[in-house]
Specification:
The structure is a single chain. The protein is of the alpha+beta class. The protein has 3 domains: 76 residues, RNA polymerase II/Efflux pump adaptor protein, barrel-sandwich hybrid domain (OB fold (Dihydrolipoamide Acetyltransferase, E2P)), CATH 2.40.50.100; 40 residues, Dihydrolipoamide Transferase; 205 residues, Chloramphenicol acetyltransferase-like domain (Chloramphenicol Acetyltransferase), CATH 3.30.559.10. It contains 8 helices and 19 strands. The strands form 5 sheets. Strands 9, 12, 15, 16, 17, 18 and 19 form a 7-stranded mixed beta sheet that branches. The longest helix has 17 residues.
Length: 454
């Protein structure tokens, strides 16, 4: 008998919910055959078997939450010595209870920081700021202190086992370094430990950097129903809470006259349909945004506060928010600048369909530089999208409408498209943001600009 255990599913994914079990006792399966459909906090994936043989037992059912390393199936192997991949735990006959593995670090919403050369511990450390009361949002005033104010008592706790650069990051995030549990040797605290702790404070109830008010008993006023969050909805809530709390957001709005563009789009739509795509405004915006990222490289960056650096990306991968029945998913179109609009229309149509039918892979949602969120198909005149950290900007598109525009001494009807740009003010200034947004508007109004400056 061989146990097939849930293998590692991807970076920072420790568990998932069983959507479908694809095999039954008595089935004969082959290596790499899908045996389980699993919804993680990032996507729906099919789990392939690492062994061949006859299924003698199924240890999970639809609706179960399973963890990496948990036994999924028991099999009689059809071929002796069918090796499991290196990342799957090896099975042994009558195994003794294994020691519990270290708890996985909480899933991060940002890409892991690269290895960082720690600064020498001899570096002088500034005195820590007085700790805020639990549950308060901390605001530091630089005004004059009252004369009667007494300095807080000295912190007598032992020094935290962390490099000065790690302690500095904790101060920037408003985290008490003494509350962070280190996962390094002898409990040494790393930058990832600090980030994970900050994320828990923000996303978990009770004692966060953002005060979490207890909910009232709604049943006092009428009937209620509680439903658990899906993994994707929970991950979206955590990621957006983290982005909102850590990224200083600013949103600017503008309008583009797309009267001529819409006429051209309608004329060329059949070419995209013949290729298997759909020539939507989002597809055109993909090409425009990729060109804008080359003209304004500061919008194709990420902020590394731990190293006081800005990471400039030399590629243009653009994500598109897709509305699904499970929540918002953001598939990423890679190397947008090197593809024509027909190719982009086909690729976006395929990815959007995969998102709606739960076929989107983790790799297809990673590596984005910038995100587009188009709500125009639903309605609205403008909105303030939240930056999809660690990106530094996101473009929101609302529904276009016919409006009177003063042109050559008279009002004429024009199709005007509302645009909303949210950005990370740590790396992008307001003047740069409006130049970027105006460039996008003018490129939609005058597509020749893409060839001229893009």
């Amino acid at each position: 008998m061989t146990d097939f255990r849930l293998p590692e599913l991807g970076e920072n994914i420790a568990a998932g919910d069983v959507l479908r079990v694809l095999v039954s006792p008595g089935d004969t399966i082959k290596r790499d055959q899908s045996v389980l459909e699993l919804e993680t906090d990032k996507a729906t994936i099919e789990v392939p078997s690492s062994v061949s043989g006859r299924v003698t037992g199924v240890k999970v059912k639809t609706g179960d939450k399973v963890k990496v390393g948990q036994v999924i199936l028991t099999l009689e192997e059809g071929a002796a010595g069918a090796a499991a991949p290196a990342h799957a735990p090896a099975a042994a006959p009558a195994p003794a209870p294994a020691a519990a593995p270290p708890a996985p670090a909480p899933a991060q919403t940002t890409a892991p920081a690269p290895a960082i050369m720690e600064e020498p511990d001899e570096e002088a450390e500034p005195a820590p700021a007085p700790a805020a009361r639990r549950g308060e949002v901390v605001a530091i005033s630089r005004g004059t202190r009252p004369a009667a104010e007494v300095a807080p008592p000295a912190d007598t706790r032992p020094a935290a086992p962390a490099a000065p650069s790690v302690r500095r990051l904790a101060r920037e995030l408003g985290v008490d370094i003494h509350d962070v549990v280190g996962t390094g040797i002898a409990g040494r605290i790393s930058m990832d430990d600090v980030k994970a702790h900050a994320k828990r404070l923000i996303t978990e109830g009770g004692t966060g950097l953002v005060r979490q008010e207890p909910l009232p008993d709604f049943s006092k006023w009428g009937a209620v129903e509680r439903k658990p969050m899906s993994n994707i909805r929970r991950k979206t809530a955590e990621h957006l809470s983290y982005a909102w709390a850590t990224v200083p957001h600013v949103t600017q709005h503008d309008r583009a006259d797309i009267t001529h563009l819409e006429e051209l789009r309608k004329r060329m739509a059949k070419k995209a349909e013949a290729a298997g795509g759909s020539l939507t405004l989002t597809v055109i915006a993909l090409k425009v945004v990729a060109s804008a990222l080359k003209v304004f490289p500061q919008f194709n960056t990420s902020v590394d506060m731990a190293r006081n650096e800005i990471v400039y990306k030399k590629y243009e991968h653009v994500g598109v928010a897709v509305d699904t029945d499970r929540g918002l998913l953001v598939p990423v179109i890679r190397d947008v600048e090197s593809k024509n609009i027909i190719q982009l229309s086909v690729e976006l149509s395929q990815l959007a369909e995969k998102a709606r039918t739960r076929k989107l892979t983790l790799e297809e949602m990673e590596g984005g530089c910038f995100t587009i969120s188009n709500l125009g198909g639903i309605g609205g005149t403008s909105f303030s999208p939240i930056v999809n950290a660690p990106e530094v900007a996101i473009l929101g598109i609302s529904r276009g409408s016919i409006q009177p525009v003063w042109t050559n001494g008279a009002f004429v009807p024009r199709l005007m498209l509302p645009l909303s740009l949210s950005y990370d003010h740590r790396v992008i200034d307001g003047a740069d943001a409006i130049r970027f947004l105006r460039w996008i508007a003018e490129a939609l109004e005058q597509p020749f600009l893409l060839s001229l400056e893009g």
